[in-house]
Specification:
66 residues; alpha+beta; 3-stranded antiparallel sheet; 3 helices; 15% strand; globular
């Protein structure tokens, strides 16, 4: 019997998962969503963030210079 474990990359993240991926706090992610900075989709009462939206947000950040 072959028990190959296949890792499936998520296409949508919960705000909590997005916060972990971005290394930000959960409330910060909710604030970014409320301000329209971080795009999300809504299914019923659930909010989900597309992987592309996370990448777009990270790409929009300006590097900090010393």
């Amino acid at each position: 019997m072959n028990t190959v474990t296949r890792s499936i990359e998520p296409l949508l993240y919960t705000p909590e998962e997005a916060a972990e991926a971005l290394r930000l706090g959960r409330s910060t992610v909710y604030e970014l969503m409320a301000d329209g900075v971080l795009a999300y989709v809504k299914q019923g009462r659930c909010r989900r963030i597309k992987v592309a939206a996370l990448k777009a947000y990270v790409d929009s950040l300006e590097p900090h210079s010393i």
